[in-house]
Design goal:
The protein is of the alpha+beta class. It has two domains: 2-228, PmbA/TldD fold; 233-447, no CATH class. It contains ten helices and 17 strands. Strand 9 and strand 10 (320-321) form a beta hairpin. The radius of gyration is 24 Å and the shape is globular.
């Protein structure tokens, strides 16, 4: 542990390294070059049966280099930061470039698009917790969870992790930018048993600022309550029924939308939303945009992976698709302009409605509440959707009993059009922020 703490991170060292990569590329004859450097350090611990189970330290560094000889490009990545290794990587990238075909879309972002003046965001909040303290927190979490209900028979894992990270991007158009960020999380996975039935569930908290993490006691309580509620799960008969995706699962449903409007999917003609700009995708009440400058948010960034300034892009307005998610390369392939989304969206916000989850259940009256998803049966090319799910059957607007071993299926195109309401129970534990989503009807395959 003490050895890890002796290693100091010095941004100036990495900034000088980036400058040297660009100079070396120029010496080798490259017309343009870019370099990305990512550094992170931290640790994670887990506890089981009142004892520490794992302690893992991590300190990772990666340098990604890309060079251009006109419209030919070559790239290399290394984690060895010695001068000779970096020079060898630049030489390898240059060598590769000479054997690649010309690509009209290749090259750096135009100078007019680069974020030479970018905002400094509040994203870095190191956690002063020691490994010993983290172990005690994990053990406490397990102990409290097991004491809540006698049907909780074991904890698969109680874990704590913390990471400090730093990203740099620089290119030969004179751009150099870097920003730090942190991520901390705590989770508890439990197993409950009643008669011959066993069920598993969990709870977790994650934040860039440790002061925003839920308490150990609350995570233990949530994990225990969720796990016990799974006992007595039944299968449903095959039917068509309304469905609510609980907020933490609704995030994944909206993630398929971002995949479908991403430049890489579009220029490869591998998206069910190809050529859908200015077309109705969602009901008219839907509004989706990104907000990349939110303080303490897990998806915030002042610039994208091309060094282009991020911005408050509106993707869905009045249910209509207004923008694609584009970086410089994909934009050129499509004959469009970058939206500052090389690397993806930054804090995608689905505008919430006015109802909490219990009010959404009353609106649905009868149907399926999805709280867990399994498998990955989603085809972004066609929109075909089929996922294994668990959750609860609802009647008269109230949860009746847990359900498992069922599948929901549909077409994303129809699912999006048939959204009835978005809840105000927004889950902010990720890059996509949404409340629970009520869909008018889906096919449920069970018995």
């Amino acid at each position: 542990m003490s050895e890890i703490k002796k290693i100091e991170f010095n941004p100036a060292t990495f900034e000088a390294m980036a400058e040297e990569v660009l100079r070396e590329a120029k010496r080798k004859g490259a017309s343009e070059a870019e370099v990305g450097i990512a550094f992170n350090k931290g640790f994670s611990v887990s506890a089981r049966e009142g004892e520490v189970e794992t302690v893992e330290y991590n300190q990772d560094k990666i340098v990604e280099i890309k060079v251009y000889f006109g419209k030919k490009s070559g790239s290399a990545s290394i984690s060895d930061l010695r001068d000779e290794a970096i020079k060898a990587a630049v030489e390898a990238a240059c060598h590769i470039a000479k054997f690649t075909s010309e690509d009209p879309a290749a090259g750096l972002a135009d100078k007019s698009e680069l974020a030479y003046q970018f905002p400094h965001l509040d994203l870095s909040f190191p956690w002063s917790v020691t490994v010993e303290q983290a172990i005690e927190l994990a053990i406490q979490c397990e102990r409290e969870a097991l004491a809540i209900d006698q049907r909780i028979i074991s904890a698969e894992e109680a874990s704590i992790s913390t990471i400090e990270a730093w990203n740099l991007y620089a290119n030969s158009n004179g751009f150099s930018g870097a920003f730090p960020y942190t991520r901390h999380d705590m989770s508890c996975v439990l197993v409950a048993k009643e008669d011959d039935e066993m069920q598993r569930d969990f709870s977790y908290t994650v934040a860039s600022d440790p002061s925003l993490l839920k308490s150990v006691s609350l995570i233990a309580k949530e994990a225990a309550e969720r796990t016990v509620r799974r006992l007595g799960a039944r299968r449903l008969p095959t039917m068509k029924t309304p469905v609510i995706y609980m907020a933490e699962e609704a995030r994944g449903l909206m993630g398929h939308f971002t995949a479908a409007i991403s430049g890489g999917s579009l220029y490869r003609k591998a998206s069910f939303l190809l050529e859908h700009l200015d077309k109705q995708i969602f009901p008219a009440f839907m509004h989706i945009q990104e907000q990349p400058y939110l303080s303490r948010a897990l998806g915030s960034a002042p610039f994208d992976n091309d060094g282009v300034a991020t911005r408050d892009n509106v993707f869905i307005e009045d249910g209509i698709l207004k923008n694609y998610l584009l970086g410089v390369y994909s934009a050129r392939k499509l004959g469009m302009k970058t939206t500052g989304n090389a690397g993806g969206a930054h804090n995608l916000i689905i505008r919430p409605g006015n109802k909490n989850l219990s009010e959404l259940l009353k609106t649905m009256q009868k149907g399926l509440l999805i709280t867990e998803m399994m498998g990955n049966g989603v085809n972004i090319v066609t929109g075909d959707y089929s996922r294994g799910v668990g959750g609860f059957w609802v009647e008269n607007g109230e949860i009746q009993y847990p359900v498992h071993e069922i599948t929901v299926a549909g077409k994303l195109q129809e699912m999006y059009k048939n959204i009835v309401e978005i809840g105000n129970d927004v889950d902010i534990r990720g890059n996509i922020r949404t409340g629970s989503i009520l869909i008018e009807e889906m096919m449920v395959a069970g018995e």
